[in-house]
Amino acid sequence: MNAPEIAELEEQERRLTLPHFTHDDAWALGTLLVELARERRAPVAIDIRRGGQQLFHAALPGSTPDNDAWIDRKRRVVERYGCSSLLVGSRFRAKGTTFEDSSRLDPDAYAAHGGAFPIAVDGAGVIGTVVVSGLPQVEDHAMVVEALERFLAD
Fold first, then answer.
1. If you ran DSSP here, which 8-state letter would residue 3 be given?
2. In total, how many domains does the chain have?
3. Are the beta carbons of 104 and 27 closer than 8 angstroms?
4. Is 140 a domain residue?
5. Cα separation, 129 vs 24, whole angstroms
6. Residues 9-28: tens digit of each pLDDT
7. Which residue range forms the structural domain that includes residue 61?
8. Is residue 138 classed as helix, strand or coil in its secondary structure?
């Protein structure tokens, strides 16, 4: 699976802005991600946060503590840049460099690899994150996008 172009990643973020995001919404989105992962037998961990509060976390069979470390590193990128971790990494690559070489951020704390996506609310901006870790980065990202598309369609 090839990474989407920067313009497509930016369009996803515009399109996947939510009208609101409550604790119940976090549960619904999280359980939707768990269902998608189970259907695919994906060995992932899933994390949803609003502000500094973790509202949902699940670790499916085959996931490891390393997935939680990746979740934290990818989530920090979204919190710092306000856009998906895949988009941040793609922007650095488009400049002929890498996030690790040019961001000046500790790679033990930040990872611009796909799978972390901003939770943006109409009129409020980015208020949280949804993260999947355990698949190749483009697949982690695609799973989050698919879940947000389904969540918005309901």
1. P
2. 1
3. no
4. yes
5. 15
6. 999 999 999 999 999 999 99
7. 6-153
8. helix
* 9 sits in which H/E element: helix 6-15
Cα separation, 140 vs 138, in Å, equals 5
Any domain includes 117: yes
Is residue 121 within 8 A of residue 25, CB to CB? The reply is: no
| pLDDT tens-place string over residues 95-149 | 999 999 999 999 999 999 999 999 999 999 999 999 999 999 999 999 999 999 9
Could you tell me if residue 1 is inside a domain? no
Q: How many CB atoms lie within 10 A of CB 42?
A: 21
CA 152 – CA 18 distance, rounded (Å):
7
Task: Look up the pTM and report it.
Answer: 0.96
Q: Determine how many CB atoms are found less than 10 A away from the CB of residue 39.
A: 8
Q: Give the number of other CB atoms < 10 A from CB of residue 108.
A: 8
> Which stretch of DSSP H or E encloses residue 78?
helix 65-81
Domain containing residue 48: CATH number: 3.30.450.150
DSSP characters over 10-70? HHHHHHT-BS---HHHHHHHHHHHHHHHHHHT---EEEEEETTEEEEEEE-TT--HHHHHH
Does residue 111 lie within any of the structural domains? yes
